[in-house]
Amino acid sequence: MKVLFCASEIYPYAKTGGLGDVGDALPKSLQKYADVAVAMPMYSFISSDDLQVFASFSLQMGGIDYEIEIYNTQNYYFIKAPLLSSTENLYGNALGDYASNDIRFGLFAKAIVELCTLMSVDILHVNDWHSALAPLFIKEKGLHVKSVLTIHNLAYQGIFSKESLQRLGLDNSYFRMEALEFYGKINFLKAGIAFCDALTTVSPSYAQEILTPAFGCGLDGFLQAHKYKLHGILNGINADFFDPKTDSFLAYNYDANHLEDKRKNKVAFLKKIKLKDPRKPLFIVLSRLVPQKGIDLICKALPEILAHKINLYILGDGEGDMISQLTQAALRYENFVFENCYDESLSHQAYAAADFVLMPSLFEPCGLVQMIAMRYGVIPIVFATGGLRDSVFEDQDKCGRGVVFTKYSKKQFLLALQRALLLQKDDALKKANMACDFSFQKSAKAYFEIYKALV
User: Global pTM?
Assistant: First the structure.
């Protein structure tokens, strides 16, 4: 079986969040079951020095001819196209999303389908709205390729004006409720849901949540109509890359039997970020700084959090009022450091140093931070939603111990933090978490079963 796995970001070539990590880890685990190739956009910052041209062709979209080049190395394929490959960032800049994103990712989806033909693919696995037009293009071409769409975050749907239909070369007949139409606009993700052969999302709980108005982001009714093909499969992590025993970003490597070396990492990290007293519990937040992640709840609770004898470190990129609140708080409190950026090496060092990670997400399709944290001996504090509900348990009989609050309020969040402080020196709990299997092996087998059923 030949599978083409496509995503808009795949680590180490591009990453803004969890999708990049999944794009790295899941295809590697799937190799055990199928012949898997990976495709992504060739952004302007990806060098072609170590790549070779695999194919070049012209695609017509909206009456315009676009020249496409596909580069590859081993089983990785990179789509180079006008607009798609000329921007500085993946999706937008400080002014907002790129105005040409409909064309950029429409071309990506159409080029993917062409690549399916060139490679004689059996299964095309697309991810989120950026590649969600591909199942539609497969149906239009009448290809014998089955498609799987994974929704990583329903809040991001790829919504554009009705005029995009013409720019994408799509017939007006698609502008209907059963296809792309969405409150007078067109919706890329809705197209994928409508035309894919199988639909998955990244945790069992989230698969149920998105069928409700509270989490459905306007698509709950449409998803109800397509729930016969919906599956919830919990994500995993790249257990080789996220391994404190071999992690090259760390000052000291360690495992569950040498937690004293984790404490050495804490001393080194606190010195690096200029926080004092390694005896204090170190709480970390590693996240995109958006309301979904509960950053506003953290901001509201900051005075009470920092009144404890703890240290707090927040690493993440974002903009707006929350950034300004965190920046001001970091100037005011000597036990708090905030860095408004994304940095892979710093995040690994933070995991190795931390005692606790805060994840008060308002909703969380899956979440990878809690799994990585537990692998590094860090205790997660989470709100019971989506994949957090499926992977962190305040229950000694389950693998993946942490602190869970079930009512979304500042009071319950702070009570969870107080319960967590009682666990700071619980090395047995940390060792048990480090022994849990958070790899993609179980998930990969579940995806393979879906592929097998389709072909």
Answer: 0.94
